[in-house]
């Protein structure tokens, strides 16, 4: 069963303020969930395997921006993945993955399943095997408090742009796409769509299309917004989201 969650208002304001300042990853995570109530002990084999997984992800992910790792066997096995935004440099990707690992340990101590998102990356681990499956459980919304002047005309443009990026992202190797759409003279709408690369192309598009369909839950008539999940995310803004839309 799918569940959706909204971030605390204070974190929401901090997020958008940090965007305007072009804040680095050090600004802190966007959100996190400790989604498995089962715990492990610090000296357990699971804890050791989790530390190994974090180390491996910090090595394997930065060169391509994505990686999956499993560490250990049987009951003590832990599975994890990390994804960096498609335009993030190798250096910043590594920094984000390392920070995400440390922050998850602080925010979800001894939890056997957790996920965290930064603007530059996401990191997820679990004692259950989740690779290749769309994560409909871990999801939240972000939105701009300001509204557009003509929502009736604006909302279809958001859907048009993001739907095109959903197709584009699902048919590219990196499962990542950005683009823009003219709304009038000297005014553009910018969009982004990305999936974790453990998904199939069909499941990537399914995930993105599902995220787009949830935008009315949070972002109707807003000047910017996004649906962020454990397998994919979509975003729109009235200012450039990344340095280049290539």
TrEMBL record:
Pfam families: Stress-antifung (PF01657). One of its GO terms (cellular component) is extracellular region. Coiled coil: none annotated. Residues 1-26 form the signal peptide. It is found in: Secreted. This is Gnk2-homologous domain-containing protein. InterPro entries: CRR_secretory_protein, GNK2, GNK2_sf. It comes from Rhamnella rubrinervis. The keyword Secreted applies.
